[in-house]
């Protein structure tokens, strides 16, 4: 199968849903991974499967003021997308022998290109593009039209997103949740029990949009004997907030870490934390980090996420008070035997197989329609 994936993040920046899924596809698949240009020189992932070719192209970026101003010019858009479409077709010719069986997309700014390619489309809905701030009207119209088109197959990462998508676009999605590399994280299971320090930890992006800085202040004050460790990339729009919590005596913020060392880092936590702002957009989310915590075996206190309701060793919270009560519970019952979770349905190997079957079925349906 020949696949194009138009991504909103570089392959070598963070190991996210896309990389996990595609890395577990059969080696006989030819995959062209088109990623946005980024001025950042940070690179963390060196290994890319041999059947995946990553190509970087300059594309408009949400959250970048200059980029959004330029995108509002119809002339600039015409020139940009004409050139990018030509370049994409050359890439398809070179790396996919001229044909793509299916296009996967998770970046709204590539829509004008996929309109010119005429291949079956699967939209991977891991994040709502509008949750990080307003998007230009011109792309919003294209986005709404594309997601409302019944020919566009939508795969979402959570039950909550499914309902939202269906309500907004009247297009019923399929759920393939975010997952965890069980083999990698289970190797560190229960290591946290040997740690004599009380460490409340978080691994993930420290974002202006979602990270709950006020909650960290409350936890820091309430539990002065606990270390609060935060690992992850820092949103440049949140630097002032990050500096403020960094000044707290028991809070340490570390740089983002290579994915391969995350199991070791997480196994040092007494409690895993998902300290995101509590509102409906977040409740629909499905954090892969939460599954990594549970796979290692640590108890977790997280913002409410509908997808994970019912899992063991997990307290889901909608208020700061519930967060504090959750942390209290695990600190006071640290010697209680935790219940095991069967996370096999969230193993990336299983999810990748399910995902690929959907892509294959989508190709077959489109071929039948063209007969």
Essential attributes:
single chain; 371 residues; alpha/beta; Rossmann fold; seven-stranded parallel β-sheet; 14 helices
> Biggest sheet: strands, sense, closure?
7 strands, parallel
Please count the helical segments: 14
- Can you identify the CATH superfamily of the largest domain? Glycogen Phosphorylase B
Q: Tell me the overall shape.
A: globular
**Mean pLDDT, as a whole number?**
91
Q: Proportion of β residues? A: 15-25%
How many individual domains? 2
Walk me through this protein's architecture:
This protein is 38% helix and 16% strand. It is α/β, with parallel strands linked by helices and 371 residues long. It has 2 domains: 2-178 and 347-370, Glycogen Phosphorylase B (Rossmann fold, 3-Layer(aba) Sandwich); 182-345, 3-Layer(aba) Sandwich (Rossmann fold), CATH 3.40.50. The protein has a 7-stranded parallel beta sheet with strand order 3-2-1-4-5-6-7, with helices on both faces. α1 packs across α14 (348-370). The radius of gyration is 21 Å and the shape is globular. 37% of the residues are buried. The model has no long low-confidence stretch (mean pLDDT 91).
């Amino acid at each position: 199968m020949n696949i194009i994936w138009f991504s909103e993040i570089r392959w070598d920046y963070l190991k996210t849903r896309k990389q996990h899924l595609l890395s577990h596809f059969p080696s006989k698949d030819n995959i062209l991974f088109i990623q946005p240009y980024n001025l950042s020189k940070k690179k963390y992932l060196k290994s890319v499967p041999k059947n995946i070719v990553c190509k970087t192209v300059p594309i408009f970026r949400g959250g970048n003021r200059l980029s959004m101003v330029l995108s509002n010019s119809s002339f600039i858009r015409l020139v940009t997308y004409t050139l990018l479409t030509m370049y994409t077709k050359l890439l398809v010719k070179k790396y996919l022998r001229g044909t793509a069986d299916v296009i996967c997309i998770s970046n709204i700014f590539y829509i004008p290109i996929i309109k010119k390619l005429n291949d079956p489309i699967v939209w991977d809905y891991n994040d709502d593009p509008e949750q990080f701030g307003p998007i230009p009207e011109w792309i919003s119209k294209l986005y709404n039209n594309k997601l409302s088109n019944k020919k566009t197959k939508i795969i979402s990462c959570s039950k909550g997103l499914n309902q939202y998508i269906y309500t907004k676009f009247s297009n019923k999605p399929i759920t393939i949740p975010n997952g965890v590399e069980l083999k990698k994280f289970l190797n560190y299971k229960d290591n946290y029990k040997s740690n004599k320090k009380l460490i409340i930890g978080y691994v993930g992006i420290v974002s202006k949009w979602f990270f709950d800085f006020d909650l960290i202040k409350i936890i820091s004050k309430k539990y002065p004997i606990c270390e609060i460790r935060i690992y992850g990339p820092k949103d440049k729009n949140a630097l002032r907030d990050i500096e403020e919590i960094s000044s707290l005596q028991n809070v340490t913020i570390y740089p983002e870490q290579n994915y391969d060392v995350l199991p070791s880092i997480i196994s040092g936590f007494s409690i895993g934390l998902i300290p995101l702002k509590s509102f409906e957009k977040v409740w629909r989310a499905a954090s892969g980090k939460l599954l990594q915590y549970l796979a290692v075996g640590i108890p977790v206190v997280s913002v409410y996420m509908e997808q994970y309701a019912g899992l063991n060793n997990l307290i889901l919270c909608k208020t700061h008070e519930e967060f504090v009560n959750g942390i209290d519970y695990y600190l006071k019952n640290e010697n209680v035997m935790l219940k095991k979770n069967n996370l096999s349905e969230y193993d990336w190997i299983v999810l990748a197989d399910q995902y690929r079957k959907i892509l294959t079925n989508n190709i077959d349906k489109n071929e039948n329609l063209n007969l």
